[in-house]
Specification:
disordered N terminus; about 140 residues; single chain; alpha+beta; two-stranded antiparallel sheet
């Protein structure tokens, strides 16, 4: 991926990933430039079911755990995050950033105090500000 170009994933329900560059202003973090979308485009809100489908369609291919059930607690957590960030485009960016993060896919050497590398899962994504941090690019690279 060229430097400064962000990728988003569409909840398209097809067997292939579609990637689309998003154009926005450039931000600098740790000396690296990346594109930050101006404002997520208005559009339909994502649903908890679509969020699970998007995770399973795109993140399982990356070696991350499949969500087998949308439990009451997961639904509540998903709805809380969706209230904060309702746009499908926002979640597309989050999934794109997960795909571009070696750390979130468990491809980084674990810290000395851990036996294995960290891998993100759906529940982790919905916890605290984790989805926002992924969106902002904290785990890029």
């Amino acid at each position: 991926m060229p430097d400064g170009e962000a990728v988003k994933y569409d909840f398209d329900r097809s067997d292939h990933l579609q990637t689309t560059p998003e154009i926005g202003h450039r931000a600098e973090r740790n000396g690296h430039h990346r594109s930050v979308p101006n404002n997520p485009e208005p559009g339909p809100n994502v649903t908890p079911e679509e969020l699970v489908e998007g995770w399973n369609e795109h993140c399982v291919k990356l070696g991350l755990l499949r969500v087998s059930e949308l439990s009451k607690r997961r639904r509540e957590n998903a709805l809380a995050k969706i209230r904060e960030h309702p746009a499908v485009s926002w979640w597309n960016q989050v999934l794109g950033n997960v795909a571009n993060s070696r750390m979130l896919k468990g491809q980084c050497k674990p810290a000395d105090s851990y036996d294995k590398s960290f891998k993100a899962d759906f529940d982790w994504l919905l916890k605290d500000d984790n989805a926002l941090k992924v969106y902002e690019g904290k785990f890029d690279g």
